[in-house]
Amino acid sequence: MNIASLLVDAEPKDGLQRSYTVSDPKPEPSPAMSTSKLPTSPTVAHPPPLSQLPARRRRNRNDPKPIWAYREGEELPPELAAEERKRLQPTLTPQPQAQPPPPIIASHSSNGNGVRPTPVSGELQGYERPICNDARVYDEVTRRVCDFFWTNIVMHTELRQAVAASPGVAIEIEGRWGQLTNKLSDKHRQRLISLHDSEGVVRASALDQTQTRFESTMSLEQHKKMNQYLNRLVQQSRAPASGRPPIEINYKHTKEVDMFYDLDPAGIMLLPEPIQPIVQQSNTRQRIRVTRDMQSGEVLRKIVKHRIANLEILSPQTEWDYRIGINLEIEFPGPIEGLQLLVETGKMPHDMERRKDRVSYSWMNAYQIDLTQVVQGGTKNHELELEVDADVLLGAADKMQRGEQQGAIVNDFEAIVAGMMNNLRVLSREITG
């Protein structure tokens, strides 16, 4: 089959010219993605995972699902059931205490007092509840993203231990809006579409890594529309509608300049010792991003951003697709003096400056949306990304493993991931509509 039959022109029909980001190193396929391939795609040889640590193993289809995915009353496999009995043994008492009734909220009703008890757990009711009477039915894409995080971070024990033992190192979890495109020529790309007409996770083996990339960009008009939409949400959060609990959205405007320097072997040796083997195993060129205040020139950050894994999601019904990324952000402890500035062939050093005008919106101490205008080498690009607080997500996962949310219809770990996906969808639909 001709690959062109699966493509749609990435250029906007309204004639607006889109500029794309400067080429980044080609992302490696996520080790958590399925290795089965689509019949219409060529066979692609992928490099091994960035880390050869045993906890990085991809969960196979026949492996038992992680403990966070089990619901109350669902039968556990023998090995998990034995661990659960062992964990609960010290807390057993001869006279178990009666459980308190579920909390209720006021809801309109036709009875005498005008209210009726309603569970606050968010369980399915009425027609929504399936024949099996399950309280919740999981969203398949959200569950896939949960598995992606569970495999690549939560159960990646050696990675988490290395981060915990390394000052200045943090895990970054981000979602980016953009388009998954296929390179047809040096100047022309087309958006990749699938055979299905709805949102879905892309198999890593279906992507030709030498021809396909994720373009994180939007037009100027889309940038303005998104800025206006997010600003309205900030105003509404400060004056919430009657009867709705306020969710405060914080707003911050920054102007910064990025420059990139080569991270050579000597620079790697300056990084925290537990992190060095992870960085050294990378097959891509490592860079130091030095960020300065645009007005004062003060150095704000010196960061090595190391990619762990990516997960691509196609969204044919909206303007944008999504890339879910897991990275390490490593503070570079060495001096800037003596570093080799990365300059592309035919360009001058000042052409490599990335001048960022960014507006950030954060809420619930868990999410942050960055709307950024980037000017580099005479070109202007607009980017939108969502960051999830890794400490909040990992804290929720650890609570699940300790059994602190046993019996919850929706656990915090799954709820945070669902919130991430819902935010990606809502903003994408706002622009598409």
Overview of the structural elements:
The protein is an alpha+beta fold and 433 residues long. The chain has a single domain (3-56, 149-432), classed as mRNA triphosphatase Cet1-like (mRNA Triphosphatase Cet1, Chain A), CATH 3.20.100. It has helices at 78-88, 140-154, 157-164, 220-238, 265-268, 276-280, 390-401, 412-432, and strands spanning 7-9, 104-105, 118-119, 169-183, 189-192, 200-201, 212-215, 249-262, 287-293, 299-314, 321-331, 354-363, 367-376, 379-388. Strands 4-11-10-9-8-12-13-14 form an eight-stranded antiparallel barrel, surrounded by four helices. A hairpin with a 5-residue loop joins strand 4 and strand 5. Helix 7 runs antiparallel to helix 8. The longest helix is centred in the C-terminal third of the chain and has 21 residues, at 412-432. Residues 1-56 and 90-120 have low confidence and may be disordered. Keywords: Hydrolase, mRNA capping, mRNA processing, Nucleus. This is mRNA-capping enzyme subunit beta. Belongs to the fungal TPase family.
